[in-house]
Design goal:
Blueprint lengths: L1 H20 L4 E6 L1 E8 L2 E8 L5 E2 L4 E4 L5 E5 L4 E2 L15 H7 L9 E6 L3 E8 L2 H8 L7 E10 L8 E24 L6 E7 L4 E7 L4 E8 L12 E5 L5 E6 L4 E7 L6 E8 L3 E2 L7 E2 L2 E6 L5 E6 L2 E6 L5 H4 E6 L10 E6 L5 E5 L6 E5 L11 E7 L20 H4 L18 E4 L6 E6 L11 E5 L4 E5 L3 E3 L6 E7 L2 E7 L1
Antiparallel strand pairs: 1-2, 1-4, 2-3, 5-6, 6-7, 8-9, 9-10, 10-11, 11-12, 12-13, 13-14, 15-16, 16-17, 17-18, 19-20, 21-22, 22-23, 23-24, 25-26, 26-27, 27-28, 29-30, 30-33, 31-32, 31-34, 34-35
């Protein structure tokens, strides 16, 4: 019986992972001419999305499907569309108007939008952007051009007869700070439900951290790590997590290096930082100009290798080899003639466990592919321009986090409260908390009046697992707590509480 139960648990976990993986099963990419890639049975099937220059999906685009693999939301960095390309109600502009005008309708900065799924067909769209004030006072004056905001928009795809509707729009997560125009990525919290979002500051190696939950978004401040200073050339770059969410890597166009660190999915802490300098090669055998600017980074599916692209060179780093001379392997450089080469850009692991590399400096008919990214050396089988499209317009893969990453039960010990109520013990009455929502006081009792809570500890947690108070009293003063969603734990029961 125990063995059968174990098999059942493994089967449920596998099915859940497969369902979560379906969030990333459809890709939309292309500029002017755009295509849909549907990764069915580990193979990318191509179909035309638009050949009439109606849409532009460049470096800042993102998209998502539901757990059944049905295509749901598409973002070009500025507005939200459904699977047909029709603007979702309320999704016409989700970033400040001046920024939309500046970029002429689509974002050209990598990782400037993310879409995060929650239950009941609810989605958060996270956008890094520049405020109207930043555009007017600085971008238009050619002084300096930074991002200074991260915003979120919440979409309920059940509304409007299943066509979706924006229910919260352009809500500030942080503003009036100096942010890179690239380098933003999400990683599932250890609870397997909520999300960490990390956003790189401009120049200095500081990272802004947020927790996105079903109910709200929380700004957890900034973690500074000293070096490296990235410089002012921030128009290209990526943050990526490994498949387990335990390592973090980032590059930016200003430096010939990669920043690596460990990541804790429970606390969000970045630790054990290291800087690895990239080899330097020329752009090609015939073009002796040195290629020194990193633009993209991606872990291999088994997390043993790291791929880094510059404009003209593709490298592989063996993360388990301490010898810098043998750890690096140059996979390829310019894959066509100098006049025709569009430069490499962002790269992402596909649902088929291949790595796809986009273009930066122009439009092409294809993206390049690493067929066996877990293999060290030439066996990784880099295939230049192998993912062919019918017309010129190929740009970059959409920005997608690792949707299939699940709960880490071991890491959760002592980390986060149970986010859903547990069933009461046999013979114990149901826990009652009132008023709910609460403004000043919470009262706690069992529905069965004969039972007492006098000696039972009550613990109140916020949505990201931080304990706000612990008491044995049956009346709790919540007047000094920020408005939001909390979880009251009493014995083995948990009740969701709203404080207003």
């Amino acid at each position: 019986m125990i063995k059968q139960l174990g098999i059942l648990v493994l089967l449920v976990c596998a099915l859940n992972s497969l369902a979560q993986k379906n969030h990333g099963i459809n890709w939309i990419q292309g500029t002017g001419y755009s295509y849909k890639l549907h990764f069915k049975n580990m193979m990318p099937f191509k179909s035309i999305f638009d050949l009439n220059f109606n849409y532009y999906f460049s470096d800042g685009s993102s998209c998502i499907s539901d757990t059944d693999g049905n295509f749901k939301i598409l973002c070009n960095g500025f507005k939200l569309m459904d699977s047909t390309g029709t603007t979702i109600e309320g999704g016409d502009t989700i970033t400040p108007s001046e920024f939309c005008k500046w970029e002429d309708g689509f974002s050209s900065y990598s990782q400037s939008s993310l879409i995060l799924p929650f239950r009941n067909d609810m989605y958060y769209v996270i956008t890094a952007t520049a405020s109207d004030t930043m555009i007017t006072n600085y971008w238009n004056q050619n002084i300096y051009a930074l991002f200074d905001q991260v915003l979120y928009t919440k979409v309920d795809m059940k509304l409007n007869n299943g066509l979706g509707k924006v229910v919260s729009k352009g809500i500030s997560m942080v503003d009036n700070v100096k942010l890179s125009k690239t380098q933003m990525m999400a990683c599932r919290h250890a609870d397997g439900v909520n999300w960490w979002v990390l956003k790189q500051a401009h120049d200095t190696n500081m990272v802004y951290k947020f927790i996105v939950t079903e109910d709200s978004v929380y700004n957890l401040g900034v973690q500074g790590m000293g070096e490296p200073h990235w410089g002012y050339y921030d128009i290209k770059g990526q943050i990526m997590f490994n498949t387990q969410g335990t390592q973090y890597a980032t590059v930016a166009w200003g430096r010939n290096l990669i920043f690596l660190a460990d990541f804790n999915r429970c606390t969000g802490n970045i630790s054990n930082p290291q800087i690895r300098y990239l080899p330097i090669h020329s752009r090609s055998a015939s073009i002796l100009t040195l290629d020194t600017l990193a633009v993209g980074v991606c872990f291999s599916p088994n997390d043993s290798l790291l791929y880094v692209v510059k404009d003209y060179n593709l490298y592989q780093l063996d993360l388990h080899d301490p010898d810098s001379l043998t750890a690096w392997y140059r996979v390829a450089n310019m894959d066509t003639t100098y006049d025709q080469f569009q430069k490499w850009s962002a790269l992402y692991k596909g649902p088929d466990d291949k790595v796809y590399i986009g273009n930066w400096g122009g439009l092409g008919r294809a993206m390049s592919v690493i067929d066996n990214p877990n293999v060290k050396g030439v066996g990784c089988n880099f295939c230049p321009k192998c993912l062919q499209f019918g017309t010129i317009g190929a740009k970059n893969p959409p920005c997608m986090p690792n949707y299939e990453l699940g709960k880490d039960s071991a890491l959760l010990v002592g980390c986060t409260p149970v986010s859903l109520p547990s069933p009461p013990e046999e013979g114990v009455g149901e826990l009652v908390v009132y008023p709910n929502p609460a403004y000043s006081k919470l009262n706690i009792k069992y529905e069965i009046a004969s039972q007492s809570l006098a000696n039972t500890k009550k613990q109140l947690y916020n949505s990201i697992g931080q304990m706000m108070l612990s008491t044995k009293e049956n009346e709790i003063d919540v007047s000094n707590l920020p408005s939001g969603v909390y979880y009251l734990r009493c014995g083995n029961q948990v009740v969701k509480v709203v404080v207003e």
